[in-house]
Design a protein that fits this description.
By secondary structure, the chain is mostly helical. The protein folds into two domains: 173 residues; 52 residues, Arc Repressor Mutant, subunit A (Orthogonal Bundle). The chain contains 13 helices and no strands. The chain is elongated and about 60 Å long.
């Protein structure tokens, strides 16, 4: 069992964009395009628009969703929809921009030099917890609109590259090696890619994990332990939590 400082509930309580605050972020980053005059009304409508978009996309697929269907299921008039978003593609772009902004902020905060040495394990755990905190947004970005032309290819590449470089930077801080010495280390690149895959697996298989009794803390423990094992050149065998052991798809090593 993870300690209090390692529990998801502690992370969630400190997360800057939980609940309605994520819609405040979207509003601030897109207010030049939002024609709803009253901020409070815009925030309410944005929340309903995105919540129903996620539900429809998961059920029917984002490509099949029409703004008229979104209007009907959200209870917002078609004029109210267009006052918040210019198009269906703009809606997807707003979501991807939000995820990218939060992801970049997460990476930057993780690698800022501090009095205590940065912890790669803490970064991986917090990345898994972030994936849970914004799960609906990540799922929408990586699953529902992944193949939509012109929407999120750049954001996906940006997030992946930043994550890998962030892991690499933390590896340097922990090892005390110079950038030149470690930059060409292929094993370190593999570890960084592995960390990215572990976070992505939670997004891709979250429902299966939860159905099988694998909690977010269980999975975060497993992700950290897997990365530690990789960091030791795979000399230390990974002991999976019992619930995770039963899920064959989790074996990434």
């Amino acid at each position: 069992m993870a300690g209090d400082t390692q529990r998801y509930s502690s992370y969630r309580d400190q997360f800057l964009y939980s609940g309605e605050r994520i819609y405040e972020l979207i509003y601030e980053r897109n207010k030049q395009h939002i024609r709803t005059k009253r901020r409070a009304v815009a925030l309410v409508n944005l929340q309903r628009i995105f919540e129903h978009t996620f539900a429809i996309s998961k059920r029917d697929g984002f490509k099949e969703m029409s703004l008229r269907q979104l209007s009907h299921e959200s209870g917002i008039s078609i004029g109210g929809i267009y006052a918040c978003i210019e198009s269906k593609q703009a809606l997807a772009q707003m979501a991807c921009d939000c995820v990218t902004f939060i992801g970049v902020q997460h990476m930057q905060m993780a690698v800022v030099p501090r009095r205590q040495a940065a912890s790669l394990q803490t970064f991986v755990r917090s990345s898994v917890y972030l994936a849970e905190a914004i799960y609906e947004w990540l799922r929408f970005m990586f699953v529902d609109v992944r193949s939509l032309d012109g929407v999120n290819a750049n954001q996906l590449a940006c997030l992946s590259d930043l994550f890998v470089s962030g892991v690499g930077r933390l590896q340097l801080l922990e090892s005390g090696r110079s950038v030149d010495e470690a930059g060409a280390a292929y094993a370190r690149q593999l570890e960084a890619r592995l960390a990215l895959l572990l976070v992505g697996d939670w997004v891709q298989q979250r429902d299966d994990f939860l159905h099988r009794g694998i909690s977010i803390e269980d999975y975060a423990d497993y992700a950290v332990q897997t990365l530690v094992s990789a960091s030791r050149d795979y000399q230390t065998p990974v002991t999976k939590p019992p619930a995770v052991e039963a899920l064959t798809g989790i074996d990434v090593l």
